[in-house]
């Protein structure tokens, strides 16, 4: 009894490729593709709305202007804070040594702008220049604003 040698019989190309690599991927139906596009557009629009509103709600910004080291125990930091005129702000200021270690730190309170200052300023009292004197534990080579924020109101 002999068996047929099937190695010489050529199979159709698509069947032999399917055996080797697996079946071809099914494409999404037209309805599934439409929903995928709708969901992607909704997510994109939500992201754009979030980005545009998150920038609008960031109501405190700060800018380092300069620093001056008066001696090994004191440094001065000049900076600007921009916020809504009726808003109180707190800023953390730090002095750094040559190895970027913090050698001086202070949190300063910036009160809300009064009505007189709002009328005299070109931007209505939004931007305020500040100079802060820091005590340092060693010679500072830099002074910067670490962060500024709106403090939470005290619970009564």
UniProtKB/TrEMBL annotation:
Q: Which superkingdom, per the lineage?
A: Bacteria
Q: What keywords tag this UniProt record?
A: Membrane, Transmembrane, Transmembrane helix
- UniProt keyword Transmembrane helix present: yes
**TM spans, by residue?**
35-53
**InterPro entries, A to Z:** DUF4307
Q: What is this protein called?
A: DUF4307 domain-containing protein
Q: Which organism is this entry from?
A: Arthrobacter globiformis (strain ATCC 8010 / DSM 20124 / JCM 1332 / NBRC 12137 / NCIMB 8907 / NRRL B-2979 / 168)
